[in-house]
Design goal:
alpha/beta, 10-stranded mixed beta sheet, two-stranded antiparallel sheet, 10 helices, globular, disordered N terminus
Length: 307
């Protein structure tokens, strides 16, 4: 840990959801044919560079601001709540920020928890560098050492995937919540490649370079069967209308974990579960160990019509 300072109300920024322009896809299709090495370098840069925020939002949570240094990363961290209370770690996803977890943080603080949230490596107030999923996992292990132990970890999107990988590596989280979690980095790379228009040959060259950098193969990251060794209570929250991460990813992941439960939401997409009051209440109840949880939100009326 390199520095500690009290921080004013947390600030963070919204990120752009704009899609890549058709002209970019046209460029990468052409570059894949005539200059594949150049296309590989440029595609790899896009794949490993978090999108820049374009506007700012803030939460009203007073929190202690710290910086945790690990490897090539300086991670901006915030914590709040009683020092001796059970602790919860909140991990945002790709292109997000710690403040995205503000609604959850407020609910958990109201439930008497100590809450720690942070900007992922390469994001927000953390030092801006090119990053990948292994950097997210490294950050979780570092925060577990500096701010843990954690009674629970809650992750969103790629931050949730990192929670799963950290648990496979014996991170000592007492329970875990996975919100909108992707099940495969290889499938993520394929969707990215299709979106920008690089050829399969360039895509595979990019994969090999990233695997070499991190000394970790995509197929090893994607070993869902390894979740069978994770025996902590887990809750998967996934929206049926999630356009970024298909709902069937939650089915695959939750089926692999022996103590996993699945909460299906409707009409919230990929990010709104982080702010939906009913979903936040269910996540808070699970983190606090309450046994009764809904299986579907919004709750079906009785008698229920067909969805």
């Amino acid at each position: 840990m390199s520095s500690i300072a009290l921080h004013p109300p947390l600030r963070a920024r919204r990120t752009s959801g704009a899609s890549l322009a058709p002209v970019l896809r046209h460029y990468f299709r052409l570059a894949s044919r005539v200059a594949p090495e150049l296309a590989r370098r440029q595609a790899e840069r896009l794949f490993t560079t978090p999108p820049r925020p374009h506007s700012a939002v803030s939460t009203a949570l007073p929190a202690r601001r710290e910086t945790v240094s690990v490897g090539r990363h300086d991670i901006a961290v915030w914590s709040a709540g009683p020092a001796g209370a059970p602790a919860v770690l909140l991990a945002h996803g790709w292109g997000g920020c710690g403040a995205q977890m503000g609604t959850l943080a407020a609910a958990l603080l109201a439930a008497g928890r100590r809450v720690v949230w942070f900007d992922q490596p390469g994001h927000g107030d953390s030092r801006r560098v090119r990053v990948g999923l292994p950097d997210f996992v490294q950050a979780l292990h570092a925060l577990n050492a500096t701010h843990g132990p954690f009674d629970a970890a809650v992750g969103h999107s790629l931050g949730a995937a990192a929670v799963g990988l950290a648990l496979r590596e014996r991170a000592g989280f007492g329970r875990a919540v996975f919100i909108g979690t992707p099940a495969s980095i290889r499938e993520h790379a394929q969707r990215f490649s299709a979106r920008i228009g690089i050829s399969p040959r360039v895509r595979e060259a990019m994969r090999r370079r990233i695997e070499h950098f991190y000394a970790m193969r995509f197929e090893d990251i994607d070993r869902i069967d390894a979740l069978g060794t994770v025996t902590v209570p887990a809750l998967f929250v996934h929206d049926v209308d999630d356009a970024l991460v298909p709902f069937e990813h939650a089915l695959r992941l939750s089926a692999a974990m022996p103590q996993a439960r699945l909460l299906r939401t409707w009409g919230l997409g990929h990010r709104r579960p982080l702010h939906d009051p009913a979903t936040v209440a269910a996540v808070t109840d699970f983190v606090c160990g309450h046994a009764e949880l809904p299986q579907v939100l919004p709750a079906l009326p009785v008698p229920a019509p067909l969805y």
